[in-house]
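Worked problem 6 (solution included).
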Amino acid sequence: MDLITKTIKSIKPLDEAAMTAARARQDTLTKPAGSLGRLEELSIRLAGIQAKADPRVERKVMFTMAADHGVVAERVGNWPQEVTAQMVENFLRGGAGINVLARLAGARICFVDMGVAGDLKPHPYLVVKKVAYGTKNMCREPAMTGEEARRALETGIELVNAAADRGLDIVGTGDMGIGNTTASSAIFAAMTGMTAREVTGRGTGLSDDQLDHKISVIERALKHHHPDPKKPLDVLARVGGFEIGGLAGVMLGAAARRVPVVLDGFISGAAALIAAGLAPQVKDHLIAAHASAEAGHPLMLQSLGLTPLLSLDMRLGEGTGAALGIIIAEAAARTLNEMATFAEAGVSEGE
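Solution. The predicted structure is:
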């Protein structure tokens, strides 16, 4: 049995017994019932994912994956392709937004080169899993081969398995890749049947004319390939990206190991569409950190059946939103586990 199939078969439903126990404890804590709102709901969800009545959010890893996209040849954005490598170097120096917020969350960052169009300098914090030096231009040919799509997914699974073997309570997903909102919009349209105009946003800040051009590029790619939503790996191969495939693998691998996954924004959402297309049960293990300012992201979350924890008009990517989501997840778990019950505190319960 291949790794992807084995992983998908290992994904189990939420543990109802653990959720029932967590819910029962919530009802005895020193507070009016339901007064912590969605923190209570999240703590119960974490219990179901981890199959523990006392879920823990202590060992945290951010997977921030980087890759380049051949579709930048169609001038779909304002930034040159070399910015991908330059930003990864900034990550490794500790100077990016994700570095700041991951430190705040107490999360280790695993920076992964899934397909940057150039060789990065070796660094102890960089994991090189390069599938290729960037994808092909999806307007002219498939972004990657079917074998490359599988390899990207398998890489994400392998990385999560290695982290889980060392001890892992929660993961966050992040990305870096010039052109990846174009690929993500194409995946979104292909997987849901929505139009390119409905799902495409301004990315790094496009003008109206540039947005129209970006939409036309996506429409051309979809018309050229006719990706089949019933074949998610084929969608990934035809219009996706290596970092998107890697993140989809992270989601499948984490779900199989009963590790909750906190999603960042639009690119992570596209990866989730691929993962959920392969294994619908993975959606129970996903937590949406925030509603991105990227147009289409709320619709993307709706299609996944996810409600975001935050809405801060963020659209940076890198995993910044996911890092904040991990902080909230830890707050949910800690309030469940560390608050006193009425009996423990000697406080009279309300009628």
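Discussion: The CA atoms of residues 311 and 325 lie 11 Å apart.
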